[in-house]
Amino acid sequence: MPDLFAVIADGTRRDLLKVLLDAHVSADSSTGDVSVGEMVTTLGISQPTVSKHLRVLRDAGLVHVREDGQHRYYGIDTAPLEAIEDWLIPFLGADVDIEVGAGGAFAAWAGASMPAPIRRAAENIPDPGDVGSSLGRAVADAQHRASSALHDATSALDERVIEPVRKRLGRGV
Prior knowledge:
This protein has 8 helices and 3 strands; from the N terminus they run ααβααββαααα. By secondary structure, it is mainly alpha-helical. It has a 3-stranded antiparallel beta sheet. The longest helix is centred in the C-terminal third of the chain and has 40 residues, at 131-170.
């Protein structure tokens, strides 16, 4: 697997990830997937350049592709970015004294009954006003993982069950 820091170091790839993230969180998008053509139009760069960078992102596990005829639709996969987030969190919270003030009270309130990603987010909030934003991000990430798992399960069901049955029925079984 490629070094994620090297993959996201490229500005064009970060721009592509931003377009995909915007589509993922958009209420207007049912799947969160974006066509290559839409990315070309949005970013104003050539199709070969977009495709080259999408391949790097796909190889790094940061995006998934859905084929529909001759069209390719890409969506963001945030799970690999969690490793970077986990690495960054201690640096981002280095100036925060969690034991003092509202940050410590919130961390104590969060306790062991909270899921680990939400607890980590709560423990590293420098400003209590950021609680909603941080929790919203954790919830959106959990929703994305659940949606991706459902998509993968549906694809596997189609591939392993539905398609073989269709083929057998097509042969007059």
